[in-house]
Every structure is written in C-alpha cells, then in structure tokens.
Amino acid sequence: MAITGGTLVTISAKMEIIEDSLVGIKDGLIVAVGRNSDQEYAALKTKDTIDASGCIVMPGLVNTHTHLPMVCFRGMADDLPLMEWLTGHIFPAEARFVNKKMVYDGATLAMAEMILSGTTTFCDGYFFEDAIAEALSAAGMRAIVSQGFADFITPDKPKLEKRMAVAERFVTRWQSYAPMITPAYFCHSPYTCSPATLVNIKEAAREAGILYLMHLLENKDEIDTILNRYGKKPVRHLLDLGVLDEQTVAVHCNWLTKEDMAVFADLGVRVSHNPESSMKLAAGVAPVPEMLKHGIKVGLGTDGSASNNDLDMFREMDTAAKIHKVTSLDPTVMSAETVLKMATTGGAKVLGMEKFIGSIETGKQADIILVDMNQPHLTPLYNCYSQLVYAARGADVKTSIINGKIVMKDRQLRTIDLPTAMENVRVVAADIINQKLC
Ligand SMILES: [Zn+2]
C-alpha cells in the first residue's frame, strides 16, 4: 500500500516535512518514505494507493492515560471538587455499574471516538482489563492495557486475596500480543493503595517486565493526606518504598517540586500530562516546561471521559500548548512543535514503544493518520505544527491506519459498528438515570 500526494509531517529526529510525499507500507511496516515523484517507489503504487492530496500525513497520536469505560459516565457529574467527584459519584457508580459487558461496551465506544479523532495508541487503566483487551483486539487499535488496583473492593475483584492471581492470569493471557496489546499494572494512587499494595504490585510488575502506572500528585490535598499518614510527601514516600524507576509512569504530577523532578530525572520515571482533566477538576497545572528542562520523558493524555469530557487529542494538544503560556506569562513556552512531539514520539517514549511507533520512518509500524486540511478553519497553511495544534480538531482526521490496516477511511469506521456502540452505552446511561445516580 502507498499513501501519496500529501504533506508528510514525519516527527523524525530531523523533523522532516515532505511535500507531495509517498509513504509505502508492507506487512504492517513503513517500508518507504520519500517523494511521490521518486521512481524507485513506483512499484508500491498498487490499486490500494490512498490519495492524500490536500491532507497532512502524520503519525497517529498517542494517548498516554485514559480509563476507556468511563465514557459511560461522561457528563454524569461535573463541576465538582476531585474528592467529592470521586467518592460521591464515580466510585459509587463504578461499584454498581461496572461489569464485564459495561467495560467492553464502553471501551468499544471510546475506541470509536479515538480512531475518529486520530489516536492510534493509548494507555488504559481500569477494572476488567481482559474485556478492554478483547475490545481492543476487535477494534484493531494498539494499547497498553493496565489492570487496576486499589485497597477497596473493586468490581472485578470481590475478594482482595485473589486479586494478584487474577492480575497474573491477565498478564499471561496478553503478553504475547505485544506490541499491539501490552499488559501493565496500574495502582490507582498512593492514597488508595497501602505501602504493601504499592510494593507488591511493583515487584510483580518487575518480575513480568511490564510498566507500572499510578496517579500521582493530582491535587494539593494529596500532599497533606500522605504527609499525615506517613510523615513524608508523596514522592519521598514512593522513593522510600522503592517503586520508582524507568518502568514507572506517574500520571498528572501537578504538584511535582524541583526536588521531585531531580528524583524523576535521576531514576528515569516518566510522566503523563493530562491538562484538561486537571483544569476541569481544578487540580493544578503540571510544571511540564521545567520537567522537560530536567530531561524527564513527558507524554500527553486525556484521562477518562468523566473528567475531560472527551478523548480528542487535538483538543488536548491545543490546551497543553496554551495553559503553560498563561500560567508562566510566557508565550514562548510549549511551542506547537514541542506539543506535537509530546503527543507522538513523546508518548511513545513514555510507553516504552518508541522503537515501534511515534514517527513516520522506515522500519516503524504503520500507525498513520491523514488530516484533511482543505477546510475553512485550516486555510491558509503557513506552518503545519501551528495548524495541527491550534486550529485542527479530531473531526478533521479523514483516514486512520493502525499496524498497516485501514481502520477508518473518509470518516467511516471499518472495525467498529458505531450505531451499535453508541446504543450499548445509552442503555448503561439509562440505568444510571433510572437509579437516580446523576
Ligand atoms: Zn486517570
């Protein structure tokens, strides 16, 4: 297969942009990157050639943090403080409504939304991750799927003593599907997981050679909670427990101090930045420009749909570029180019997948999107990075290719039945409304 005629934004180390380009794909891999006029690539132009004239051709976006089934709670409880939102609405709704079918249906709708808005890889953390991996397999997306842990009874693990066995079975089942499906462990937070839980899960993650993820320093109250409970601040607490290393992804980090950043940089801890969710919950603003100066790997994420309330990485890029300018009163920080890298190669590095995805280069897996630039809000075009970050929207994505397979063409999904996916989630929502949970 070849994609011809578009403006290619490679996000390679040289950040090459190629006009009237050609990208060749074979067996799921990118086998050629050049100009449409290059004769050496003529054989790649088969009947499956995609005409990308008028489009930007770019790597698929990488969403480093989300909870897919939470699409079922989208708009259910808004405009509330984090703890009231979590303990008064989200946790009770999860206790009553989260089951394997709800997780599968929610994940399927979320994947439809992501494919339609240009995301090709994501990192999820929730319960019943088996069901998410199954939905993922059907949708043909690429993801890290992380089995969630917390010290309360979770919907998928009614008996606490059995949770490790369940998690290990999950990892064993999916480990051979990498790099399309990669299992991981997700401890909800230092305030919902005891030191023993944090340490035991980290040890199991190290043994399995998988990522270990956690919400960390989301809001200011978390610092006081951990300080009161353990006599130290969250990063010191985790450092003393020995759970921080280069296989740890800390999500949010809105209250990371300079000392914490030195620890992260030293140990190689990676960060997922979720600005819209943190803005909506008034949780804080992560010091991302400082993290980047420290050499910390930072990727972009949306978080779940209950706190965002969508999974559109184009909107997230726009927000990420602007929020740091206004909080620092410096319009030069977090340029469009920096943010676009964060949403592609940056995310791939955070998830440990940079060898496979994140840029359009020969040898990488073919995760590619076409953005239709022939639209009023994208005209004229001076700078691709500015246009993609500040003016484009998820709905401008025309075609999505994952692992060399077309999963959406001309806005039509090929792996998900969208009307059914939406109806299944409306059924869950009707139950929530009937039980007066919103
Ligand atoms: Zn989250």
Walk me through the structure.
This protein has 438 residues and is α/β, with parallel strands linked by helices. It folds into 2 domains: 2-59 and 366-411, Urease, subunit C, domain 1, CATH 2.30.40.10; 61-350, TIM Barrel (Alpha-Beta Barrel). Helices cover 38% and strands 21% of the residues. It is built from 14 helices and 19 strands. It has helices at 82-97, 100-116, 129-139, 163-174, 195-208, 220-230, 234-241, 258-267, 275-280, 288-293, 313-328, 336-350, 384-391, 418-434, and strands at residues 2-4, 7-9, 17-18, 21-26, 29-35, 50-51, 55-59, 61-66, 119-126, 142-149, 181-187, 212-216, 248-252, 270-273, 298-300, 368-372, 397-402, 405-409, 412-413. The strands form 3 sheets. It has an 8-stranded parallel sheet with strand order 8-9-10-11-12-13-14-15. The longest helix is centred in the first third of the chain and has 17 residues, at 100-116. It is globular and about 65 Å long. The N and C termini lie far apart (48 Å). 53% of the residues are buried. The model has no long low-confidence stretch (mean pLDDT 95). The chain binds zinc ion. Zinc ion binds at residues 65, 67, 215, 251, 303-304.
